[in-house]
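Notes from the 1:1 (GR / supervisor)

We went over the backlog. Supervisor wanted to see one worked example end to end before approving the batch request, so GR pasted a single chain during the call. The sequence is below; no edits were made to it. Supervisor asked that the structure be written out right there so they could see what the output format looks like.
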Amino acid sequence: MSLEIKVDTKGLERLIQQSPKRVDAWLRGVATQMVGDIKLSFGTGPGGRAHKRGGKWHIASRPGNPPNVDTGTLRASITMASSGHLAYRISDGVDYGRDLEYGKARVAARPFMGPMFNAWGKKIEADAKKELNLE
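Structure output shown during the call:
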């Protein structure tokens, strides 16, 4: 699964030309913060239905909220990696991540990446201005 934030780089072009390593370090930092924010969102919504699996009880999250932690595998699998020049990809490494994010026929969505991408999409310009000292 992948979601994307596209940044209008017009205001960054000069800085990218003059100091691409500085811009890349900022982008890497943003991606790292996003991964942390995504992981911290797990279990923050109201609890839903309880069910027993493998001898242990798990309280599911309610639809529309980030998933609650069951085994921790999904949360641990969320990573960030460079995907090209001034580009980073945030992804999960489990088969069921897409099903939780978007839902499927009999299971409602428990989005965990989309809300964070939306939140960062709204604040990334201000963060760039602050962190990169742009006018």
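Supervisor's comment: The two ends are 35 Å apart (CA to CA).
Batch request approved.
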